[in-house]
Queue: 2 jobs
Job 1
Amino acid sequence: MVLDTAQTTTSQIEHLLANGVTSVLRYLDPLGSSAPKVVKPAEAQALATAGIRLGLVSEGWGNFAHGAISAMAGERDAQNALTSAPLVGADSGTTIYFAVDCDAGLAAIEKLVLPYFASISAAFAGSAFAVGVYGSGNVCDLVIANGLATRAWLAGAMGWSGSRAYLAAKPSELVLVQHAPSRLANLDVDLNDVLGDFGDFLPFSAREAPVEALPNV
């Protein structure tokens, strides 16, 4: 079972295991928040110790407020992700999903979303990590079609533009499909259908770094 949550999972790992959770998607925040939404090295290490894999999604505002999805914001978000992912033990090949958490129209996708992902794609070139897109069917479809991400995670809001058609088509890049919010293991979560390798990782698996040696714990 794969879920995403905006809550820290450390104290609930026993319950995650009891419910058959094999991977948890958690957040990077390019706005610099220290809220429970943001995964920290200690949580990543605790998940690794339990054998639970970690996936990463970058989301600041998640919508068009405050210029949060634009070419300039893409540069900022990409650099934050490239810096933050190694601190939580991300392996080479990890996919980091960048969220467009709203029902973007076609004009906004052309004007803001595609330049956002173009900046991210350029920043990730030559890095150890891959770019994923989270959003509506239209967002996922057009970002992938323009070669700006390699994996797609379809948001659970099936009423968003193009989402039902995208799910019905099940293109090869569609690897995660989110369900409506629910409650599991004492956490507010979204469960996800896994349609393919979505680029998660076992934190610190290559080097078993001790928690106390990591920054920002």
Note: The mean pLDDT is 93.
Job 2
Amino acid sequence: MGKLLREYQNGDLVDSVCILTGLSVKQTRQQKPFLKLEFGDSSGRVAGVMWEGFDEEVTKIPPGEILRIQGKMEEWEGREQVLVKSISLPPSGSYNPADLLPATGHDVEEMLAELDRIINSIVFPPLRGLLSAMFSDSEFRQSFAKAPAAKRWHQPYLGGLLEHTLTVYAHAVSLASRYPRVELELVKAGALVHDIGKTIEYRWENFFETSTQGRLLGHLVIGVEILDRWIKCQKDFPEELGWHLKHIILSHHGQYEFGCPVLPRTLEALVVHFADDLDAKISGVQRVIDREMQDSGQWTSYVKLMEREFFKGPVPPSSFEEKVSVRESPEKKKPGTKGNPEEQSLFKQ
């Protein structure tokens, strides 16, 4: 034992401690029962199948149970899965439960410090006061720092929500700065609160799953409920400003078919939607490329959510990289451009 699930290659014998994330009993065409499984550890999730060698007790193992699985890694419909031969409880002391959950590669305390700096930079007092109260609350802060951004696609790991939020904030501020009519303060606040409902939508005690409240309401509605509670705790918070913040939360998925009760109807909501969509897609595709970089070929497997394969590289050619590095070296920059957005603007004449 010792390898992570994603470290096994096609044809490798598998002997791993992991978390059961899904189990269902299916039947073959000959009416013979088999198990369709899913396992997870700090490397991610892997499907599994067990054709024989299990009894009724095995079919009753609940998701979240830590197991030792043995079998063989194989490929099925373009994806790796474990052909499971045996399932057992791992020996006592052979694993650390905390090591089984994937986590962000960034320093969480540094990200929280960055979040605090952003909040302190907000000029409009009602917004700064609202965000300061919310993100300094110890219970909410802890949940926000631990929650994943998603269960599978983008940043599906501890600290993923915090990481995603800071990236969305950076994209949103960059976009908003190009358009004078966009209210930057509202965009900043909207980017920070757009996904706060995920602190309740997801649970991460064992692996990442959707809570009952999350299944019934979804994180858009939950986010508005959380925001509304904090607004009511603020003295004389502008009512219309609250509507606009709630609108950003409710509309940030961009389309009805993606769960939005309303479409983005303000410039600020549009900015946050596109910033969120950009990070979700880029982060998701990056994970696929990273996971398959060692596989043969220049293309990833088919990414169902994006309905295409992605080129793995190398992009750009090494000769071009050398030219870029020379062009962007500190010695080549014009004096006075560092830290001066106006002089660095693409639209500066």
Note: The chain has two domains: 5-100, 108-286.
